[in-house]
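Q: Aspartic proteinase nepenthesin-2-like, please. Structure only.
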Amino acid sequence: MASAFFPLLLFLSILSLLFPFISSSNSPTTIPLSLFNTNPNQDFYQKLTHLASVSLARAHHIKNSQDSSVSKIPLYPHSYGGYSITLGFGTPPQKMSFIMDTGSSFVWFPCTKKYQCSKCPVSSQNIPTFVPKLSTSAKVVGCLNPKCSWIHPKTNPKSRCQDCQSPNTSNCKQVCPPYIILYGAGSTGGLGIVETLNLPNKKIPNFLVGCSLFSSQQPAGIAGFGRGISSLPNQLGAKKLSYCLVSHRFDDTSKSSMLVLDSSNEKSANLSYTPLLKNPVVARRNALLEYYYVGLRKITVGGQKVKIPYHYLTPNSKGDGGTIVDSGTTFTFLNHGIFEPVMSAFVNQVKGFSRTEKIEKLTGLRPCFNVSGHKTVSLPELKFHFKGGAEMALPLANYFSIVGEKDVICLTMVTDRDSGSELSTGPSIILGNFQMQNLFVEFDLKNEKFGFRQQVCK
Ligand SMILES: *[C@@H]1O[C@H](CO)[C@@H](O)[C@H](O)[C@H]1NC(C)=O
Ligand SMILES: *[C@@H]1O[C@H](CO)[C@@H](O)[C@H](O)[C@H]1NC(C)=O
Ligand SMILES: *[C@@H]1O[C@H](CO)[C@@H](O)[C@H](O)[C@H]1NC(C)=O
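A: Structure for Aspartic proteinase nepenthesin-2-like:
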């Protein structure tokens, strides 16, 4: 399946040559963002089915993430319907592609020529790896380095660094213990290194990045953009992160848009804002700290309010509930108790088309309507209403997708099969990237707010 890799855009290298090195620049850093899809050969049914199932698998993981073990960093399976960026690490820079993931906070790449990947969509030999030996700036993170505690936040240096017990710790040669990251269906592991990250307009020395020596089910490294200390925006000191996701055209390999990391205070035009929230319950559940929570207050379908039990919309005393924005999820996940009334609202309001159970079974999506023979189809508007009054009216293509021979359309959101499942923990709503197509979104990290506007992304 080597051919399954989409060609990734390499603008970054060209930009690096054009832009001189600016050390303390306040100007925004701009990185091309492309769709990442390792399965371009699948037909429509397979793709939708696949995306529905990976969206559910990711929801399982996000909702059940626990950090019981000290060497475990929350990290997530990236759906193949994700978005990727290319970053240059090392001196001279080696270019690597990463899945852009706002649902996790660690940055890692496949590393060394010995890298092993099991159950990968591409064989190990065909996965590009970072080679530390070829870089003059790569350094293994020492055990007493404060960045080692970013990897192992729960252990104190005394128990972590057994060889460094003597009062004179300047002799300590022990390296930071390896990380092992587990997720729903797979894992990765390796050593933390500090390396120079070469961005188009600046170099970031001593960037903490994982040199993974083995993984399973990972077609590329992951760049964590979450709220944790080791995430890419945090290591850069970015005040704002923004992007506009190009549309999911499954046959379109060449489009990309820009991801912008900004350290200025410039205001963006025409954005509707809602506060970024923190889950108040973090004891023993550090994973919940990483997520970008927003206050979704109401969902309307065709202008009518959908009845959603309030307890889903705010994290409860255990930290369960609430809404997160997650670039690594494809189709938005709604807890059963939210999905059912939303689906009923569509079923009740869409008149003149019959539901097709055959396609619903085939794709795992519902409802699906047979629109055969109709030149135009009008569907009720789907709107998310946020705390503070911001309203997100979704473009139709963000919540209904044409399936097969253009005669069936399906709602592109997913849920767990039954209400009693384990998915009742964690966030109730995971806003996925499919619903964010052709929206400009901004995470204002300094002022803790989330902004968006409709825009054709290009
Ligand atoms: C610690 O060890 C280093 C290297 O052996 C030595 O240079 C330094 O003087 C020692 N410091 C103390 C406080 O003993
Ligand atoms: C902001 O809105 C105004 C008025 O609708 C429009 O002319 C302008 O192009 C918009 N700017 C951006 C950046 O979307
Ligand atoms: C949709 O309806 C048309 C006409 O009634 C029918 O021929 C076709 O088989 C239906 N398609 C599906 C997928 O059910």
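A: Brief note, in case it's useful. The first strand starts at residue 29 and ends at 36.
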